[in-house]
Amino acid sequence: MQRFLNTLYVMTQKSYLHKKGETVELVVDKSVVARIPLINLDSIVCFGNVSVSPFLLGACPEYNITVSFLSESGKYLARVQGPVAGNVLLRKEQYRISDDKIRSAQIAQYFILGKVANQRYVLQRVIRDHEDKIDSERVRKAIAILSSNLKKIPHELDLDRLRGVEGDSAETYFSVFDELIISQKESFIFSGRNRRPPLDNVNAMLSYTYTLLFHDMVSALECVGLDPAVGFLHRDRPGRLSLALDLMEEFRAPVADRLVLSLINRGEVSEKGFQKSASGAVVMTDETRRILVAAYQKKKESVLSHPYVEKKMHLAILFQTQARLMARYIRGDIDGYPVYFWK
Predict the structure, then answer these.
(1) Rounded CA gap, 22 and 208, in Å?
(2) How far apart are CA 145 and CA 126, in angstroms?
(3) Which string of DSSP letters, residue by residue, matches 218-284?
(4) What is the pLDDT of residues 266-296, one digit of tens each?
(5) CB of 61 within 8 A of CB of 82?
(6) Quick check: helix, strand or coil at residue 56?
């Protein structure tokens, strides 16, 4: 039996979470709206003005539950967790590899291969499904560039040059991202990736979904005993969980980007679900955030087949599986990291 990654997202402002027996009790406006057994949870994510009692924060590590605090717009703020799991020898080897730029580049190759290949898959998918609704020639040119870049990656052992290939691929991919929006194009105009802050509706959704994905990467890495802060493609920086950013690269396009596109193209979100601040930043309304989070949770329940381990599993379990395979590769148990290529 595999335990499903159960995450409680709390988005209602002025909510209060506290421990009631062996459960988490959610209180809104002095009314109890939910009780969830602690044993059923892996993590709690609090958005904005959400309070958590000291007793609950103290109990969560006993159940291996992490508690994350994000701003209302999805910016990561802080995290409460118990002792780091896993073998210290695994983490020491992770640190040794991170200090070696050649070995780091060898691992970074896998992350970039996964990212670029899955970006290409998303573009190929839109041609297959909607060729008559898009500028297919424009998208095919982007696919050709991504295919060319995929051939370069295995031959590069310089981190800066690898990042150059990754950056060129990302620019190419997002240059045609507007073609993937086939409905509500007037309300969801995309002219390029921007963040901190996002300046349009599409970027607001992308940034928020990446935050959800990032949280799951951190949880998956912690579960297998790797240090989420010590990466290979993304280098050490105070406050940055670099390995979580590394691991999420292969999931950005097929999971986060496709989820955002589906919500737009199916009309599940609309222009009225977004607001622009005086600074020009675009934020989602509470209702739009709820729709996005619910869709993300539902997507994690989808079942996929993993060719390397030869098993079917939920997407949420796939996150943990990839983290476990990364740990095995770092330990030297397997010869390479089996990137998950979407097909």
Answers:
(1) 31
(2) 17
(3) HHHHHHHT--TT--SSSPP-TT--HHHHHHHHHHIIIIIIHHHHHHHHTTSS-GGGEEE-TTS-EEE
(4) 999 999 999 888 888 888 998 999 999 999 9
(5) yes
(6) helix
Structure-block tokens of residue 224? 């297998």
d(CA 111, CA 58): 36
- Please state, in angstroms and rounded to a whole number, the distance separating the CA atoms of residues 94 and 323: 13
- 49 φ, ψ (degrees, to nearest 5): -80, 75
**Cα–Cα distances in angstroms (integers) from residue 182 to residues 9, 121, 128, 240, in the given order:** 30, 17, 14, 35
Handedness of CA 33, 297, 239, 329 (dihedral sign): positive
Q: For residues 73 and 60, give the distance between their C-alpha atoms in angstroms, rounded to a whole number.
A: 25
How many CA atoms within 13 Å lie on the side-chain side of 8? 26
Helix (H) or strand (E) holding 58: helix 54-59
CB 306 within 8 A of CB 318: yes
Per the CB < 8 A criterion, the answer to whether 49 and 34 are in contact is no
Q: What confidence category does residue 85 fall into, taking pLDDT thresholds of 50, 70 and 90? A: low
For Cα atoms 226, 300, 247, give the angle at the middle one, nearest 5 degrees: 30
DSSP string, 96-144: HHHH-HHHHHHHHHHHHHHHHHHHHHHHHHHHHHHGGGS-HHHHHHHHH
Provide CB contacts within 8 A for 166, sequence distance 6+: 112, 115, 116, 233
- CB 204, CB 159: distance < 8 Å: no
pLDDT digits (tens, 9 = 90+) for 294-339: 999 899 888 999 989 888 888 888 998 899 899 999 999 999 999 9
